Every structure is written in structure tokens, then in C-alpha cells.
């Protein structure tokens, strides 16, 4: 079967996807009929094809956006432009942290396709954490990823014209709307996208009736809507991180856009906090549980420290502009970013507990009563982080709060 490349969009299949990569000459023509193709996408939105030549083990990934959200179906149309955003974000991130993202080999806008490095020797971090694995380089890598991509995309580094060009390039209204709805709005109201067991209704109604919480959630949503500070990944949860002992790769930046610098850090902290809570049920031996939970809290703490140090070093070396030497300017930016990250973490924790898109960390707790218990704890933690974020001045306060949840 052959398809008309570069003319019209059509969803690829395991039978015709090879057409897209032929021109790369990655596989020899004579190897083509030996290639093994599998659609392996397990995310909410896209097709992901793994193409391998078994004899040589050479492999490629072809990721294609569908014109709708895969998890819901054609009733939820979704822009194909997210494939362009994903490719552009990976290429931009690679300018400052090439070792932390998959290599992009080809982008095809018509087919909404990104061809990239195969990372099948890595594991998705969420799965690995649930199983109790730990990774010594995770904190340093994510702190470096967040600080470098933030600094180099910001007004502290770019000329104002270039910064605004970048903001325009990464304008991503449909994907941002998903976050505006699913993270910042629906979980705080009785909305039909929400998804939680009925036994949780008392805890959920407590959130819906908490005026202080709603007011603070509104502030965070407004920051997300208006503060085009840095290029964000936009969905930096533990399912968007591929990992081995020696390597970390951040994948899936289709939600990338210019937003508040604490947003990605907040999502990462939230997903580690959710895993921390869930280890009370997953980890069988008390000693094992304690060391895993300590690892998760150290990872949060070391990620923040790496972010702060890396961003500060870049600032001192490279920040331009009349206020770059003014006392307190960097400190104010870092404090705002830190407190924002705590509030954003709270929103992510709440939406992953009662919103449309859950996390396996909590949902895979087999005993339903125990699962319910930790979901209630998650809601309390999320609510506290949102309401009290301005009172946090050290990362230890955050890790102590998660430990006490
Ligand atoms: N570069 C890659 N190498 C190997 N597997 C990948 C790669 N990118 C994605 N995958 C696989 O496809 C799955 C879905 O990818 P993801 O980018 O998260 O899709 P979605 O945008 O639909 O969430 C990942 O969980 C992973 O198993
Ligand atoms: C209908 S999109 C729901 C949810 O899915 C995205 O995550 P992923 O593509 O990594 O599975 C994103 O978090 C959205 O909020």
C-alpha cells in the first residue's frame, strides 16, 4: 500500500508508516521487508509507531497526531498543529540540553508527524517509581532541564523581538485550553469531565465549597493564562520522562507554550508527591517504603536546588539588560517561581485525583478502601499547597508537608 506524502493528512497504519521514513535512509532499502512495525502509543492523544530491524536492532519512532484526542475519540477534535509544537519544542530544548531529549530526525507538518530516536531501552519513570526503582541522576537532570530551557527562552537571555517571535511560535491555544479546563477549572466545580468514586463525594464537595481554595485556584489559572515568561514543556509528569540508571530523556512536549516558570516544576513535584503517597500502599516492607519515600523527597529537594543553582549561574554569566546586576531581582524571580510551583503542584495533585486524567500511582492501589484513603489525603495535600503557597520559603517546608500528608 502506498500513500501520497506531503499532500493530504491521513492517519498512518502499521502497513504504510515505512513510507514516511524511507527518505531518511535509516534502514537499507533491502531491509524494508524485514522491518517489524508496532503501534505502541499508550498516551491519551497520539499514535506512536516503533519500527525495528530485528537483525541489527536499529529502530526509529514515528509519532503522529490524530485530528482528535485518542482517549475520547472523534467527538473531541484536536488541532494537528500540536505535532509541529512538539517537534519545535524538542529542537529548541536540544539547543541547551541535547542530552535530555530524544533526537528529532524528521518533521512532517502535513502528516503531523515527528520521527525521532527510539528510547525503548529506557523505562517510563511513572512505571519505574511505582515498582520501587530509584534513579540517582533524576533530580539533577530535571533541575537542569527546567532551568536551562527556562533561562534560554526568557527575556533575561533573548532580545525582546526574538522572545516575542518565540512566544508567537509556541502559541498553543487548543492544548493550553485542555490544561485550563482539566487542571485549573473542572476539578474545582461539579463538572461532567470529573471522575471519582462516589465515596469521595464529601471530600470533593469540601473543595467545591472552599471559597479560599477557589480564589487561589483562580489566581493560579490567571497566571497560567497571562504570564508568558519562559518556554515550558507544559505537561512534565512522570509519564513524560524516560529513564535509565545513566540517562534521562524528557519526551512529549506537545503542550509546550510560554507560561509561568514554576509550572513544569510544579507538575513534576506533584507527580512525585502522588507517588510518595501511593508508596504507603505499594511498598510492602516498612524499611523499603521509608527509603523510597526519602528518595522521592530528596529528588524534589535536589531538583529545586539544581534549578535554583543552574538558573542563577546562567543569570550571573549571561543575563543582559539594565536590571541584571540589581540586587534582589534574581532572588524575587526565584521566590515567585518557587511559590508558584507549589500552587501548580497543588492543582496537578487535585486534578490527577478527581479530574478526567488520573495517575496509575493512586489508581493501581488494589485495596479500594486504602485507595480512597490516600485519595482523600491527596485532596487535602493539594488544597493546602494551593492555599498556603505564599508561606513556603524553603524547599524543606515543601518536603515536610508532603511527608506529613
Ligand atoms: N522516543 C520514544 N522511544 C520509545 N518509545 C516511545 C518514544 N516516544 C514515545 N514512546 C512510547 O509511546 C508512549 C506514548 O508516547 P507519548 O509521547 O507520551 O504519547 P501521547 O502524546 O499520546 O501521550 C510512551 O509512553 C512510550 O511508551
Ligand atoms: C484528554 S488529554 C488528558 C491529559 O492527557 C495529557 O497527558 P498525556 O498526553 O501525557 O497522556 C495531558 O496531561 C492532559 O491533561
TrEMBL record:
**Coiled coil segments of this chain:** none
Q: Which domain of life is it from?
A: Bacteria
List UniProt keywords, sorted A-Z.
Answer: Amino-acid biosynthesis, ATP-binding, Kinase, Methionine biosynthesis, Nucleotide-binding, Transferase
Q: In which pathway does it act?
A: Amino-acid biosynthesis; L-methionine biosynthesis via salvage pathway; S-methyl-5-thio-alpha-D-ribose 1-phosphate from S-methyl-5'-thioadenosine (hydrolase route): step 2/2
The protein's Enzyme Commission number: 2.7.1.100
Transmembrane region positions? Answer: none
Q: Which GO terms describe its molecular function?
A: S-methyl-5-thioribose kinase activity
Q: Which family does it belong to?
A: Belongs to the methylthioribose kinase family.
PANTHER family in the cross-refs: METHYLTHIORIBOSE KINASE
What the entry lists under Pfam families is as follows: APH
What this chain does, per the record? Catalyzes the phosphorylation of methylthioribose into methylthioribose-1-phosphate.
Oligomer status and interactors: Homodimer.
| Protein's name according to its UniProt entry | Methylthioribose kinase
InterPro entries per the record? Aminoglycoside_PTrfase (IPR002575), Kinase-like_dom_sf (IPR011009), Methylthioribose_kinase (IPR009212)
Annotated binding of ATP, by residue: 46, 63, 117-119, 252-254
Q: Which residue ranges does the record assign to the Aminoglycoside phosphotransferase domain?
A: 38-270
Q: Which reaction(s) are listed as its catalytic activity?
A: 5-(methylsulfanyl)-D-ribose + ATP = 5-(methylsulfanyl)-alpha-D-ribose 1-phosphate + ADP + H(+)
Q: Where does substrate bind?
A: 235, 351
